[in-house]
Design brief:
Layout lengths: L10 H19 L1 H24 L6 H8 L4 H14 L10 H28 L17 H4 L16 H16 L5 H18 L4 H20 L3 H22 L2 H19 L10
């Protein structure tokens, strides 16, 4: 059942997400927790990056991770998210797709602001560090296997994981907005979008889960736990609605839904049904 978020305060969301963000970051800052996270980082890197050797005979395995670590794949990831946002009934009913999309874009801007603030904290306390490909051995470098693709497999400043934060923000926004039969696909796609930097070695598990997770949870708590996101996005939507209309008309899945919907309406009219057609 769809559970569309309202513009009112959500104390449970503010408190739970903020406490979870503090817990995750605190577990990494505590000496005992840091030791556990370090072990998890090393093990995760050796397993995932090591698969580039152990599974190198699997057709397309190394090429897959080389491609997903290219800058162009960021566009692919964006299109996947847009597909979920702009397909009626997946995240929003058709009537709310345009306003909901603007809401997500505004949420990304909130994420950027929170990330920049957290970056200042990371710099002040000297929490920054190099990615695992510069720390652990053995290491398979995708940039050496596919130099023409120029995949990103090195990061001198890997904490927090920005790509992971964007992916988790999309998942968090979707799950807070609606939970339906597409929810497992959203979760699986989010995990997949986080994997390339982990396999390549630009980011460690704690870069994503601790750093990216802290930024994401704090953003969701501030923006979606209060009326601020809905208030700001509604005003932005009023400004950009004509442009959104033009872009939305070019979206192929939207046209498909529209054509399908018209056919459905004709069928219902023929049968004498008077009820309004439900969202796909």
């Amino acid at each position: 059942m769809n559970k569309q978020h309202s513009p009112s305060f959500r104390p449970w969301l503010i408190v739970s997400f903020t406490l979870l963000a503090i817990f995750v970051l605190g577990s990494w800052l505590h000496p005992t927790g840091r030791s556990i996270w370090n072990d998890l980082d090393k093990t995760t890197f050796l397993v995932l990056n090591g698969s580039l050797t152990s599974l190198q005979n699997v057709p397309g395995w190394t090429a897959l991770w080389a491609f997903t670590n290219m800058r162009v794949f960021d566009i692919v990831a964006m299109l996947l998210m847009v597909t979920f946002l702009w397909t009626a009934g997946v995240t929003f009913p058709k009537s709310e797709i345009k306003a909901g999309t603007v809401r997500f874009v505004v949420l990304l801007l909130f994420l950027l602001a929170v990330r920049e603030g957290f970056h200042e904290v990371v710099s002040f306390f000297d929490w920054g560090r190099s990615g695992p490909s510069l720390v652990y051995e053995p290491c398979v470098r995708l940039s050496e296997l596919y130099p023409r693709l120029n995949p990103k497999d090195v990061s001198p400043d890997s904490f927090p994981g920005d790509h992971a934060a964007v992916s988790m923000l999309w998942a968090g926004f979707t799950l807070v907005t609606v939970r339906n039969r597409w929810t497992p696909m959203v979760v699986l796609l989010t995990v997949f979008l986080m994997l390339p930097r982990l396999v390549g070695g630009a980011h460690s598990l704690s870069d994503d889960v601790v750093g990216g997770g802290f930024v994401t949870l704090l953003t969701l708590a501030i923006a979606m736990g209060t009326p601020v996101l809905r208030t700001v996005s509604d005003r932005v939507f009023a400004w950009v609605n004509p442009l959104i209309d033009r872009v939305f008309q070019l979206w192929p899945l939207n046209n498909l839904v529209t054509v399908s919907g018209k056919a459905s309406d004709r069928g219902k009219a023929a049968e004498g049904e008077r009820e309004q057609r439900p969202a796909a």
